[in-house]
Amino acid sequence: MAKTKAQISKIDPVWTRIVSEAQAAVGDEPLLGGMVHACILHHEGFEDALAYRLAQKLASPEMSEQLIREIADEAYADDDSLADAARADLAAVYDRDPACHAYIQPLLYFKGFQAVQAHRVSHWLWKRGRRDLAYFIQMRVSELFSIDIHPNCRIGKGIFLDHAHSLVFGETAVIGDNVSILHDVTLGGTGKEEEDRHPKIGDGVLIGAGAKVLGNIQIGHCSRIAAGSVVLNEVPPCTTVAGVPAKVVGEAGCSQPSVSMNQLIGTRSTDS
């Protein structure tokens, strides 16, 4: 017999932790009680809370909160991988961001996490031919968060957008699993090609602030792109590139650059 949503929520460690943190937050700061109850404690599970939060953020006079909530609910009911990826993203933010001290913080406050989850819904719409709705969500994310992600961009799980400001990810860009990207990064094209024209970011990559990665090039897994670099050529796996134009300056420094978040060139992290 299939489990009900309430039964599933009881064995969801991410949701259990979020509820516990929410209850503690209300005890510590009663003035947040209304928001925390509305966003978390009134819901049966993680998917419900996430759909509600996205609807709150993305609603506008052009599209009501209720309609966006229905779209998100439909997406999560149809594709379990969306919420599974959101859980991985939540854990990634908590693990990699020293400013994040609880799982409820990204869900309630961090625009990078919220923008990625909104994009996942817009990508779901895009794949089903509902492109005008997908463009609407892209527009709202860009207006609200200063993050412009084309609905067709493919994004893996365990994604951390640090500070998450002035980001542009193009239509045919692909971002692998467990990638960390800082602010002011562009994954863009060159020229006016209309086909496959954007970068392919491998798993475990760290992209520093202000980096521009341009063209249909492969960025190898577990590599590092230094802050301010302009990357025009493919990057080998497990290396560090820096400069304008970017060149290989050494090894990546550790096995998981996106997890260690170490951006100092010439240093080696103790992370495995």
Sum up the structure in keywords.
single chain; 272 residues; alpha/beta; serine acetyltransferase, domain 1; UDP N-Acetylglucosamine Acyltransferase, domain 1; six-stranded mixed β-sheet; five-stranded parallel β-sheet; 14% strand; Trimer_LpxA-like_sf; amino-acid biosynthesis; EC 2.3.1.30; transferase
Structural features, described:
By secondary structure, the chain is an alpha/beta fold. It has 2 domains: about 15-145, serine acetyltransferase, domain 1, CATH 1.10.3130; about 155-270, Hexapeptide repeat proteins (UDP N-Acetylglucosamine Acyltransferase, domain 1), CATH 2.160.10.10. Helices cover about 45% and strands about 15% of the residues. The chain has 10 helices and 15 strands. The protein has helices at about 5-10, 15-30, 35-40, 45-60, 65-80, 80-95, 105-110, 110-125, 130-145, 255-260; strands spanning about 145-150, 155, 160, 165-170, 175, 180, 185-190, 200, 205, 210-215, 220, 225, 230, 240, 245-250. A 6-stranded mixed beta sheet has the order 3-6-9-12-14-15. It has a 5-stranded parallel beta sheet with strand order 1-4-7-10-13. Strand 14 and strand 15 form a beta hairpin. Helix 8 (about 110-125) runs antiparallel to helix 9 (about 130-145). The chain starts with a helix and ends in a 12-residue tail after the last helix. The model has no long low-confidence stretch (mean pLDDT about 95).
